[in-house]
Predict the structure.
Amino acid sequence: MTNKVCLVTGVGGATGAAISRRFARDGYRVAMLARNRDRLERMEKEISGSKSYVCDVGDRDVLARTIAAIRSDLGQPHVLVHNAVSATFGTFLDADPTELERNFRVNTTALLYLARALAPDMIASGSGAIVVTGNTSSFRGVPNYALFAPTKAAQRILAESLARDLGPKRVHVAYVTIDGSIDSPWLSEGGRTPPAWHPPPADWTRARDDWFVDPDAIAEEVFHVAHQHPSAWAFDLVIRPFAEKW
């Protein structure tokens, strides 16, 4: 596995970092993309076999240069995990419409450009995986997600188009929907409180682990999906804490 490369976008302190650690643990060279240079440099020191790249995936010129640098430094990525997300929360009357375009560039257009850049070599090698992390906004719209949900729905439909195209060419594409709040470092320690846009359940006094999704558990599922046997590939995978209402 030491010759395999995994490209992960949106490497923050929670899901992206956990995914990077999981692939590195299996011998992958991991290209970690994010906008925060300091955090990336810290994680590069912590994760063996990783290399960080400061990149705004919403800027296609910067993204193209970053992909070229990764190929030069590490080789051709065998796995792509598109975890970067741009989110705006507000009703259609209150939120800034320009944020819809920004969200679309990061969530959907970046996936298109990444797939166009990486899939041809995956096809040529007869193997590879593209995994996208999403949430239930890709299936439904609610008032406060008016400028976010449309971009996630488009992202999921694009991923499905890729899956139908690339599957017969032995490249696996999957969409992992995370239905729940992710246990992130920026949440308060102790009895963690939910984000303002995620109303707490009536019995929020229960243990926090009942409600927050563990980033390492997400990473394990992403890694599993990327390595499924070709006779049993999944496209839609929905994961949620056991106490989450759905």
